[in-house]
Amino acid sequence: DIIPQPLLDQYLSMTDPARAQTVDTEIAKHCAYSLPGVALTLGRQNWHCLKDTYETLASDVQWKVRRTLAFSIHELAVILGDQLTAADLVPIFNGFLKDLDEVRIGVLKHLYDFLKLLHADKRREYLYQLQEFVVTDNSRNWRFRYELAEQLILILELYNPNDVYDYLRHIALTLCSDKVSEVRWISFKLVVAILQKFYANSANALGLNFINELVVRFRHCSKWVGRQAFAFICQVGMFSFCFDVYI
């Protein structure tokens, strides 16, 4: 009743390998690009019409097709709602996390947007996987790590201080020692955001422990780049009064 059935059938047939050979080699990519719009038009009550097509596209041999879906999965999650997202999109999302960097960057750029739509218990499962984003297929792909730091600044609000201390703190410290200055600079902002998180939630003990770790790791570092990092963290942050205790 929403769109003519022949039109929908024509769209769904775009995943047929024969169409790619006879019509357009990138027809599956076009299908993937249009899928969120089709899903929005049909509404979540008709998601069953698109589910199989989406899963077929998500396992397409062309990484460009999977990349297209990875960049839009957060938008599709908004359209489908939390229940359908947990049932049908989370498994696809998990697959994208283990894909090529060209695909992973799609979910990374909108990691916060996707995670905030999940229930707290499901969201917490990803704490163990965030560390995997530090490792890339190409170590020279520093923009990947830069994007990770930017997303973590947003993601901090989704987790409690203890989870931040136990999991995200380690990633922040690793990124602060990155070989690329751009990555280190955004990571200094991440460190300050973590401190803000602790003190805003009255987790003063965690904040002091983290500051002490920063002092040991950077302030007393034998290399000048480490001591410079500590100075930049102080410059970026609004918590110089905390550091005064240790300096």
Helix content: over 70%
CATH topology of the largest domain: Leucine-rich Repeat Variant
- The total of helices stands at 14
Quaternary structure annotation: single chain
| Overall CATH architecture of the largest domain | Alpha Horseshoe
Number of strands: 0
Rg from Cα = 22 Å
Please give the alpha-carbon distance between the first and last residues: 70 Å
CATH superfamily of the largest domain: Leucine-rich Repeat Variant
- Strand % is under 5%
Would you tell me the overall average pLDDT? 89
User: What gross morphology would you assign?
Assistant: elongated
CATH class category name of the largest domain: Mainly Alpha
Secondary-structure element order, as H and E?
HHHHHHHHHHHHHH
The residue ranges in which pLDDT falls below 50 over 5 or more consecutive positions are 239-247
Main structural class: mainly alpha
Q: How many distinct domains?
A: 2
Major β-sheet profile? none
Keywords: Repeat
GO molecular function: protein phosphatase regulator activity
Protein name: PP4R1 phosphatase
InterPro entries: ARM-like, ARM-type_fold, PP2A_Regulatory_Subunit_A
Give structural notes.
With 247 residues, the protein is an all-alpha fold. It folds into two domains: 1-118, Leucine-rich Repeat Variant; 130-246, no CATH class. Helix content is 71%, strand content 0%. It has 14 helices and no strands. The chain has helices at 5-12, 17-22, 27-42, 51-58, 63-97, 101-109, 111-115, 120-124, 142-155, 161-176, 181-200, 204-219, 224-236, 240-243. α3 (27-42) packs across α5 (63-97), α4 (51-58) packs across α5 and α9 (142-155) runs parallel beside α11 (181-200). The relative contact order is 0.07. Residues 239-247 have low confidence and may be disordered. GO terms for molecular function: protein phosphatase regulator activity. It comes from Grantiella picta. This is PP4R1 phosphatase. Keywords: Repeat.
